[in-house]
């Protein structure tokens, strides 16, 4: 049952200033989409919230009401700060279903992208995606696949937190029946759909489907273009279903080679060629971020643990008390680490064992020393920190810098998006 957006907007505006269920004063209309309207509201106890209210025409359909309320259970089950929690759900006096949600202050990544001339820097884009992958890792661990990730559904708050909006169409193990949009097309947004989702192969949709959408979002934020772009939504859907993504190098050959490989891998047509999960993708992202910083500073010519130990002390703050990403030989090659193929490494691999064997042979031929009782205080010395403040052999993790939010527009608070897809 499609909704006439103009009529829905007019109806939503008429509610501003009214009191919902004698509890929430509707202060401001924040947005209207195909399924619901979102208001900034104040409870009678002065707490400010966001109210997401299903349109009147749709509230009459029991199936749509149930689908709308799924967002309560899905978003809350993620259990991560990057997911917008739903505090309460109810029905208004005139029969409209609504959700009471956290009120967000900031802007969507789509709004930020447009405000900055339709282009974000690679560092800012990667910092946003780093937080998104935290939320996806938590969601996927619960069996939740978002299925509609895009810049419009990512929200940057004034404290620098990136929130993932609209889990209402997510697929869950217990609720895995394929759904369609109100207009009858495949669920999601065609420009950000992975091939298996565009083809309606719901049995193949999993966490890697979301990771493709993350790659498509990066592509959009860095190039200003979509991975696939048809003249109509149906054309875009057909392209997503049948055509592999072109390398981002065609649009941005100036990007760091490792970043190009990273995005191309995320956008692989074949699911098995993508990153296996959100955590693996995040680890690769952080290594690339550090490599990009090192190339700019001239202190990390190649990416590897030995190079990280020799970083100047000014970078040490990003390397402490964190875990080491596990990299197999394929990942190292994929990130362009040519250090493994240097001739002096081969020579060292031969020379060191020979020296070790010779020293062992000499020690065995030397006369036995006189036994001496060890001092009570003798012990092994603790490992010494390197110049970067990292203990040799200690785990490291590379964290992108936080996105700067001091330039967010000083406008009334914004809230989770209600637009349909």
Question: What are the key terms here?
Answer:
three-stranded antiparallel beta sheet; 13 helices; 421 residues; six-stranded antiparallel beta sheet; 37% helix; alpha+beta; 2 domains
The largest sheet, given as strand count, sense and whether it forms a barrel, is:
6 strands, antiparallel
CATH architecture of the largest domain: Orthogonal Bundle
> What's the number of structural domains?
2
* The CATH homology group name of the largest domain: Transferase(Phosphotransferase) domain 1
Model regions low in confidence, pLDDT < 50 over at least 5 residues: 173-186, 296-341, 369-397
By helix and strand content, what is the structural category?
alpha+beta
CATH fold-level assignment of the largest domain = Transferase(Phosphotransferase), domain 1
Measure the end-to-end span.
Answer: 14 Å
Helix count from the secondary structure assignment: 13
Mean model confidence by pLDDT: 76
Order of helices and strands: HEEEEHHEEEHHEEHHHHHHHH
Oligomeric state of the chains in view: single chain
Query: Can you identify the CATH class of the largest domain?
Result: Mainly Alpha
Total E-strand runs: 9
Percent range for β-strand residues? 5-15%
Instruction: Please give the share of residues in helix.
Output: 25-40%
């Amino acid at each position: 049952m499609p909704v006439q957006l103009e009529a829905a907007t007019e109806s939503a505006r008429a509610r501003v200033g009214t009191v919902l269920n004698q509890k929430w004063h509707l202060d401001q209309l924040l947005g209207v989409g195909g399924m619901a309207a979102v208001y900034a509201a104040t409870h009678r106890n002065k707490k400010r919230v966001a109210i997401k209210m299903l349109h009147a025409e749709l509230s009459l359909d029991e199936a749509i009401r149930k689908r709308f309320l799924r967002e309560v259970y899905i978003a809350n089950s993620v259990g991560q700060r990057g997911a917008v929690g739903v505090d309460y759900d109810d029905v208004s006096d005139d029969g409209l279903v609504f959700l009471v949600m956290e009120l967000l202050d900031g802007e969507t990544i789509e709004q930020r992208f447009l405000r900055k001339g339709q282009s974000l820097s690679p560092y800012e884009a990667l910092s946003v995606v780093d937080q998104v992958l935290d939320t996806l890792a938590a969601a996927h661990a619960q069996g939740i696949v978002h299925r509609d990730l895009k810049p419009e559904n990512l929200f940057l708050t004034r404290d620098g937190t990136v929130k993932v909006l609209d889990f209402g169409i997510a697929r869950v193990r217990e609720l895995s029946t394929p759904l369609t949009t109100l207009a009858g097309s495949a669920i999601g947004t065609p420009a950000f759909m992975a091939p298996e989702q565009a083809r309606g192969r719901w049995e193949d949709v999993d966490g890697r489907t979301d990771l493709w959408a993350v790659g498509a979002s990066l592509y959009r934020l860095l190039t200003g273009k979509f991975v696939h772009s048809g003249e109509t939504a149906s054309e875009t859907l057909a392209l997503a279903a049948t055509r592999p993504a072109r390398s981002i190098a065609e649009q941005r050959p100036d990007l760091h080679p490792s970043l190009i490989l990273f995005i191309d891998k995320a956008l692989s047509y074949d699911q098995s060629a993508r990153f296996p999960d959100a955590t693996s993708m995040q680890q690769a992202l952080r290594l690339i971020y550090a490599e990009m910083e090192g190339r700019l500073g001239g202190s990390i010519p190649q990416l590897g643990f030995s190079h990280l130990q020799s970083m100047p002390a000014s970078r040490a703050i990003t390397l402490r008390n964190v875990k080491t990403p596990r990299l197999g030989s394929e990942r190292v090659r994929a990130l362009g680490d040519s250090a493994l193929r240097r001739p002096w490494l081969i020579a060292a691999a031969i020379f060191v064992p020979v020296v070790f064997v010779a020293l062992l042979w000499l020690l065995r031929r030397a006369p036995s020393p006189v036994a001496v009782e060890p001092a009570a205080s003798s012990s092994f010395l603790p490992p010494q920190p390197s110049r970067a403040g990292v203990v040799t052999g200690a785990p490291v993790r590379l964290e992108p810098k936080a996105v700067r939010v001091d330039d967010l527009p000083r406008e009334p608070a914004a809230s989770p998006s209600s637009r349909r897809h």
